[in-house]
Amino acid sequence: MSRAPRRHALARRLRTVWRRRLAAVVVGAALCATLAWQLGQMQLHEALEQAQLLSHRALRTEIDRFRYLPRVAGEDARVHAALTRPGDAGAVAAANRYLQTVTAHAGSDRLYLLDTAGVTIASSNWQDPDSYVGHNYSFRPYFRDALRDGRGSLYAIGITTGEPGYFISARIEDAAGRPLGVMVVKIDLRPLERAWAETGQQVAVTDAYGVVFLTGQPGWRYRPLHPLEDAALARIEASRLYPGADPGRADPLLGPGARVMIAGAGPGATLIGPKVEDGWQLMTAAPLWPARTGAGITFALVVLAGILGLGLADMRRHRRRLIALRLRQTEVMERKVSERTAALKREVEARTRAEADLRATQATLVQSEKMAALGRMSAAIVHEVSQPLAAMEATLTAAEFSLSRAPEQTAARLQSARGLIRRMQRMTKHLKNFSRREVAPLAPVSVTSVARSALQLAQPRADRAGIQPRLVAPEGPLRVLAGQVRLEQVLVNLLHNAIEAVEPGQGEVTLLLQPQDHRLRIAVRDNGPGIDPEILPRLTEPFFSTKIGGEGLGLGLAISSEVVQQFGGALEIGAAPGGGAEIAVVLPLLTGQEEETAA
Prior knowledge:
It comes from Pseudooceanicola albus. It is an enzyme of class 2 (transferase). The structure is a single chain. The protein is of the alpha+beta class. Among the domains are: 120 residues, Beta-Lactamase (2-Layer Sandwich), CATH 3.30.450; 60 residues; 158 residues, Histidine kinase-like ATPase, C-terminal domain (Heat Shock Protein 90, 2-Layer Sandwich), CATH 3.30.565. The protein is elongated.
């Protein structure tokens, strides 16, 4: 057999095997989906039973609060006086006030008194426009049941107020047991409806005829569960239970074409519990889509898992075929990795040496730049030192001549010579600090003191340019975490740059200390020509200089920026207000607690 037929036969066998495996996966997924559907229905049934139990307890509790109120209120002497003397206005007024007080304390909706003819002679709402006084309610079943059996109850829409409520009645008797009248309390059960609506529960209560009268679903109210018979419709009409509503013409909730269907027969599930009160029944409903969705997701997941499993099994076969090839390649790869590792090791060693050389060269350049700056200051320093020496020589000569003649003048001249010597000492001290390499750790530094020292070091160059730099600083201590000598070097470099940028004899250079929140801004501002925006990004690059004639190495701002970053700050370069340039050192300002921690 040639290769082509063998390949076609192998492909047909693979397709057949895959079809059988996929069929097994689909059958297994269908079984799992069926189990998920049944489990979803069981959970739905349990949820409906739980909701029904809670609703039943809430309804029973609300009714039991007022069940004995008509009988207890009917025992009062003022009620008996109003029934035995209905023509006595004082007795009726006392009964009205009594019923009003009882209603306010009990929290019921209405409490009213009927005589044996069903006429209201006293009511808790006797002062309201919709007062029950004078109305005849003998057609209500709760009145007839109370006269006959001693108690009655009914849920209906009020004839007088148009508001629904649950009416509980009790017969009032005299000492001989003869009926005198009926006491009725009206309970507003609509708070239960609002609670069901807010929680999204599909709960309904039906009367003895199967008409929904209490529910959180507005579309269910006053609709029957099943089509009503003519006799039931006649009794509802005679009792005037639901004036303004017509349950006989409303679509039934359960049955063909209804919105809520019996479990398993449509888009919803219902559960009707046992009788609650006066033939009432409690019904809970819930949609079936969660159970259907769960079954569908289960089917999809099982199918997906089966396909993935088949794919993984096929991948394992391919993997076994690749293992042999990879084992052969491993030896070659390990040899290449060893060679490359050795080469990388040599490269790392070379780069390490180069970095060490670079750091040493950088340190040398920094020191060279400092010494070059020191050299540039030498002429002005010699001039600055020669003046005190000449003055001191003249002072000592004068002191020698006046030693015996005027001792007071001699002491003054010696004091002047001592001041000149101290001036030279301060100058040489600043120069030694500027020239040495600082390796001390960071510590709290008084910025005002450092700024004054920097101004003294820059003063010879400022005198040569014919300008007088100014220090603008607020009162009080200003301290940062830095190296005193390095911060002084940075400020001297910025002051020299500003002095060189202004016009001799007319320039202005200002050193400003500006506290801002938790930062300190040390700004050197001049009124020179400013900085070209095109070269502004390159000012902190090493060996970049704008000075003519090759002065300097172009490392001043680069070194300053690096030093400031070591202090946890930044160097800001921009235009000064009113023209010129402004370069600022921004550092975190130390608080008292931070200084103690740093110390």
